[in-house]
Amino acid sequence: MVKKIILLGATGSIGVQTADIIREHPHEFTLVGFAAGKNMDITRKLIAEFKPEIVCIQQPEDAKTLAAEYPSVSFVSGAKGLIEIAVYDADVLVNAVLGSVGLEPTLEAIKLGRTIAIANKETLVTAGHLVMDSARDYGADILPVDSEHSALFQALNGEKKEQASRLILTASGGSFRDLTREQLKNVSVQDALNHPNWSMGSKITIDSATMVNKGLEVIEAHVLFDFAYADIDVVLHRESIIHSMVEFQDTSVMAQLGTPDMRVPIQYALSYPDRFPRPEAKRLNLAEIGQLNFKEMDYKRFRALQLAFDAGNAGGTMTTVLNAANEQAVALFLNEEITFLQIEEMIERAMDQHEVLANPDLETILHVDAETRKFVKKMLK
Asked: Mind listing the GO biological process terms from this record (predicted)?
């Protein structure tokens, strides 16, 4: 059976690589619809190649332009359009949009029992309890696309989860892993965008440099696999070959290894429970690599990672504050309005001023998200 795919965030890094997988396996997957932002060039290429039934574009005027060019395709736009395309007839919804904008569409798709391949960290970080509770209620599968969580998912597959004692996430350390905090004071945007191992979008590359990305992944791991934060560790691993590990109560450790290629976990989320060949992909050659390096995490050096653990332990709306403050601060950094170290300073200030609300509903989450962004913007004045 050919799986029908809806892809949110088609023109971003994960979206483009998802299209690669669909292209490689035309007899297994078909792209029936996708959502894009403002990149009209890539949008037109995707429409021409995959001939989708429905497309969501960010701006209404762009939707009108495209509708005139492609009369056989249905076009929707904006936040409402994102929900419309998320509930369109399909087997798998790939949530690869940036930021918390992916939350509501994902919740609506879950209500239809759809399989959700989730690459959007913010959806689980801000509203993980809503997503997982809803998935249980409606019988929807949540499959991780992040390489670390895909690794944990694979290591736990076929095992008794209650016999697993610890999750170990690996971190490359990002583009500034060898710099001291003193040296970080004057780094540029371009410096931060040079990731040593992975090809990613600008926002996630900055998050990798601050280690916020790993912090969000810790929260995701807690949400997806229901492990206490005390049982989730992070270790520095420069090569990004071991993507994550699970330790069991008998001290055995299961690790998932592979080259740093996001198309591997993307394909696994789409093909699960099957595995499809990737004849053109680079294979892992451990003899060629020679050695793998590991180092204990320094939470004082990577302050943002500690903030993420703090937010997770606080629970409730604090993870929403962490995420919203980070998104706003990263946007300011990319626009060269603040320095690199000010990103974590803004996150910490936003968390310090927030009073946690336990078990927030969607309306509360969206309100806290908006208020946090306003608070961060005001710090510039």
From this structure: isopentenyl diphosphate biosynthetic process, methylerythritol 4-phosphate pathway involved in terpenoid biosynthetic process
